[in-house]
Amino acid sequence: MLSPRCEKRKEKVMKVKKSIKTILSGLLIVPALALGVSLITPMVQPAFAEVVSGGVSAGAGSGKTEDQAGCLFGDGCIFTTIINVALYVIGALSVLMLIYGGIRYTISAGDSKAVTDAKNTIMYAIIGVVVAILAYAIVNFVLDSLIGK
Fold first, then answer.
1. How high is the mean pLDDT of the chain?
2. What is the number of alpha carbons within 13 Å of residue 135 lying toward its C-beta?
3. 65-123: per-residue pLDDT in tens?
4. pTM of structure
5. CA separation for the pair 10, 3 (Å, rounded)
6. CA-to-CA distance for 137 and 39, rounded, in angstroms?
7. CB 88: neighbour CB atoms within 10 A?
8. Euclidean distance between CA atoms 108 and 55, whole angstroms
9. Cα 50-57-46 angle, rounded to 5 deg
10. Which of 130, 85, 113, 104 is nearest to 27 (CA)?
């Protein structure tokens, strides 16, 4: 059994760890929200009504603005843009988790379970970065092969 003094000290350490975790989670959430807003904001465009004669295909084409892609695959096309943005977000999250794992490792204070958890976080973050880089390369290779540049 621990003495009452040690118990109080242990409770204080746990409170400090909890407050540090809260601060770190806030530091991770704010950039993620800012990144999300910055990715969505440029996509918002006003809609204007237009009278088009020429049937259904002409009407479907009238909804497209000048800066929107008219193709599915290739440079600046819809699927390529979506895949590249998704892989960029995955890579950014992996780097953030790598930083978070390093901070967890630093504040583990010798607790073997906390050290193991932090090492696992770092290991999985590195695996995430490698997978994101390989996925980016593979997807772009396959898309380039389909297009036949």
1. 76
2. 16
3. 666 656 666 666 777 788 778 888 888 888 899 999 999 989 988 889 999 999 999 99
4. 0.48
5. 11
6. 22
7. 14
8. 67
9. 35
10. 104
